[in-house]
Amino acid sequence: MKNIYIFGLIILLLTIPIVIGTIILYKKKNVFYTQEVADRKLSEPFLKSMATEIRGSLGSPIYIIDNFLSIDICNNIIDELKTKLKPSTLTRENPTDPYFRTSSTAIFSNSKTQEFVNKKMEDIIVAKKSEIPQIQHYDVSQEFKPHWDGFDPKYDKKFYDRGQRSWTFMIYLNNVEEGGETYFPKLYETIIPKMGRAVIWYNLDKNGDLDRNTLHQGKPIIKGEKYIITKWFN
Ligand SMILES: O=C(O)CCC(=O)C(=O)O
Questions:
Q1: Within its chain, how far is the Cα of 25 from the centroid?
Q2: Whose CA is nearest to atom 9 of ligand 1?
Q3: pLDDT digits (tens, 9 = 90+) for 121-159
């Protein structure tokens, strides 16, 4: 009989820390996600008021703002950064497909125009942190195959821990003669590149998990070339 009590006590002592640990982890996760989702709610009214058009779905809206940047600013950014382009990298290596992302990338540096553009994007999105903007350049046949910008902590733990990419802010810097559309296959949306046009979307769902509907791709250029700015907000 005494043994049963001792056994029961051991089980109890082992269970208590597990239960407490689980509650702490659950709460921590929820506080973290609630903050991001709260930030989303702060940016959305402003985006809605500025948008030329809202595409996508109710849960996964894509905000389009035409003429977000002037022709002069677009041309200046291209001129300042086109000599600094290097092959684009992937946050998750995909060794089975070396042609997954074939564009070139240059990171924003210091210039009045680049600082102005960065601030213009930061003035719209409410977030604790954001990454330095980049430009991407695509030549004929170059593309970025379907992917998500947000990280799934199961597969992209290293990048997720550095900062979840909650918002994507993309701006087309030129018109493309043919091809180069940004395509969202799950939302059946095709966005045509247009100089100065901003395209903005949130990569997480209402629980703060990766929104799989935000799968998107930069389609191959058929004629001409494409320059875009991308900036991610955490
Ligand atoms: O080039 C595009 O239209 C899409 C770019 C893109 O998918 C990205 O930078 O994450």
A1: 26
A2: 230
A3: 999 998 989 999 999 999 999 999 999 999 988 888 888
Does residue 103 line the site of ligand 1, with CB under 6 A? no
Other Cβ atoms less than 10 A from the Cβ of 212: the count is 13
Establish whether residue 218 lines the binding site of ligand 1, counting it when its CB lies within 6 angstroms of any ligand atom: yes
Q: Which of 88, 135, 136 to mutate to test the pocket of ligand 1 (most atoms within 8 A of CB)?
A: 136
219 Cα nearest atom in ligand 1 = 3
149 lines ligand 1 (CB under 6 A): yes
The pTM (predicted TM-score) of the whole model is 0.84
Average pLDDT, the chain: 90
CA distance 143 to 6: 66
Taken in order of first residue, the domains within the chain and their CATH numbers are 2-233 (2.60.120.620)
Pair 227, 136: CB distance under 8 Å: yes
> Contact at 8 Å (CB) between 138 and 226?
yes
Residue 144, ligand 1, Cβ within 6 A: yes
Instruction: Give pLDDT tens digits for 5-60.
Output: 777 777 777 787 776 666 555 555 544 455 677 788 889 999 999 999 999 999 99
Residue type for 95, please?
Answer: P
pLDDT tens sequence across 152-199: 888 888 888 888 999 999 999 999 999 999 999 999 999 999 999 999
